[in-house]
């Protein structure tokens, strides 16, 4: 029992929580934005992989770190454009299109990476984002090292979550977004073009997903390797349901999830005789459990996964 | 310009759509090959000779097509009933580890003709069991089975990793995490001597024929199609939706589990965590390229295997990363979706 308390009382745990949560916050917000407009984007896993690769590659070739993030975001928006063209304009199956985007984007990442970086025994690295110290706050005992020794993208992800919550609930744009996801016919009658809204939401959401991927290679680690996203995208899709499609709860959900993940990582060293695979399974099982608990309670956007064709019922 | 639903789907277009989709995917992938500074047509030529140029290459392509046919069928039967089984990868691994466990146990004293079908069944049951979890979550808690079946892939591979690192670890593998090999007499007979091609190919083709007959000629086939086309309508017409979905789940998960079982007994004889280079995910593409037709799955699996095996040879000769095969195959899924769309709609000015 005291081992558990020791883990929770360590500042390192809480610093890790924020670090682990960051890509999930980006990804969950991206998926949420898209789904609020009525379109499920299962391209997330591949888009995160591509963002991780292309952001890293840009920095490896001399771009600065923020340019790397921007390149990743733009690449994500491009994949979003493909997804939107297929699911919104053509009304194709959102499930299958998204999986297709994931398979395409991840294999394209590996292809480009292998072309640009020849096989080496140690993968090449870049200098990642460094933790910044917040004057005053970082020097506080416990709270300082626990919460204020992160890199800038982590703080950015939290700002985006709050901003998105504001936009969704407090602005005309957010109203248009919600209407497109709840009842596109009514939105159209009010002079909102659900097709444009969906294109915008999918592209912006995909940009966020790619930034979440880029965080992995430009802040959490400093190199790219295949399969590094490890199902984080799918976990984000589950977190959207857990959050009941609300940005604030998405932030909370990602942090809660990251807490369990950081906790189990430290528990591994305490419980040395349990196979490590059991711990690695936990995030996935936890996601499934969260889905089972929340699926019926969550308020699904009513037009989610329904293609909208003007003049058709 | 607007889209208009066609009155009926022209047969020519339906037949041509996979071909057009593949050509379009190859054209887009050609840009990527050109970007790498290689002659595109020569690269495609080398893919073809790499896959069929020699007797050995051709048998290798057919060997690779075998699990793809089974995972393709797994996806096709599920998608037809709108059951989104994206977990074939995990089901493949559970089928494989089940066979490794039983095939190296006391059971292996049974004679081959008894044991081989038994192991097939065991692998299939393992796959079924894994897919029943997402189905149960869908029926009981309304959880979308796409995400749950996907997440279970990671759990299944970690479970296999745990088994081959623990109770099923081969002590003679110099510390490598790999399972104990299955008994010699459970290995599937070769179709052609001095090649890796085994009778699993026949099993896969027979499975495709059986699934075709099941879908075209039985009540279950009709019910599963109805469940996919219009679930509410199906219930109204008296289709037992839940029971139909359970059957579809067992068939789909069973086929994916069987694929894993056959891969162990036919090719590797033991299990590692890289037994499948993504056969489960590629099965989704195979199913879509086949337009969910079980007989089309055979052809689509051959195309996919051709790309994978051919790209290996091409890559060695021209320095293009083998990932070009994955890119092309994934692209063909996207182009196929668009092609299917234009069999149903036309553009009107």
TrEMBL record, chain A:
Annotated signal sequence range: none
TM annotation in the entry: 12-32, 39-59, 65-84, 96-113, 152-169, 199-218, 274-295
Subcellular location: Cell membrane
Keyword annotations of the record: Cell membrane, Membrane, Transmembrane, Transmembrane helix
Main location: membrane
Keyword Cell membrane found: yes
Membrane topology according to the record: Multi-pass membrane protein
Protein's recorded name: ABC transporter permease
From TrEMBL, chain B:
Assigned keywords, A-Z: Cell membrane, Membrane, Transmembrane, Transmembrane helix
Main location: membrane
Lipid bilayer topology: Multi-pass membrane protein
Pfam families (UniProt xref): BPD_transp_2
Transmembrane segments: 12-41, 61-79, 91-110, 116-137, 146-164, 197-215, 278-303, 323-343
Location of this chain's protein in the cell: Cell membrane
InterPro entries, alphabetized: ABC_transp_permease
The protein's name in its UniProt record: ABC transporter permease
Organismal lineage: Bacteria, Pseudomonadati, Pseudomonadota, Alphaproteobacteria, Hyphomicrobiales
